[in-house]
Amino acid sequence: MTVPVLPVQRYSEAMEQDASQESMTELLAHAGIVVTDEGRARARRRLAEANARRDPAKLEALRRQLGLQPRSA
Amino acid sequence: VTDRPINLVLDTSAIVAYTRASVAVGELLTEVAAEGGVVALPFLCLSQAATLVEDSGLLTLLATHPATEVVGDEPETWPAHAALLSLVGRPDAASAMLASLDFGANLLTGTDRLYAGVGSDRVIPIEEPDE
Backbone phi, then psi, for B15, in 5-degree steps? Predict the structure, then answer.
């Protein structure tokens, strides 16, 4: 049976995410780090590039070599 | 472990870089948090970083933030950890790569040479933006 995601749950998740985002700004301020919109765009780009570089077949081969269980989809 | 996706692992060098005001690390932390993801801090990396930084209060703030999670190695993965240790040369780096493989997450590091022999396609080197 599929459990429907109620709007209130989505709202709650969004609020949690907003709070996390706000506190991340505070956390970084403690360390003297200020992140600009341009910086966020740069990070988004770097993550996308890294994800595109990753080879799932290579990952599974490495996991097998190390004796780790295959990742579930 | 959190229900939210773990999208990034910080190794010791990345954790230390955060305490030293690395903008590149801050940008990636911000982006992962904004997308509802979580940043993993391997236990051994956090512990090793604590021996290298002056202000351990910053580490406490990082480790208790809702967008981060301290992760340990599972007991049964010790052979994999040992195999990785033989490749990367440091227990903390082996734990960081193991977490990266386990969560299917990218690994942020300032010491990417350590991982040249294993899993290098998932490594993001810290590159500070130009002034």
Answer: -65, -45
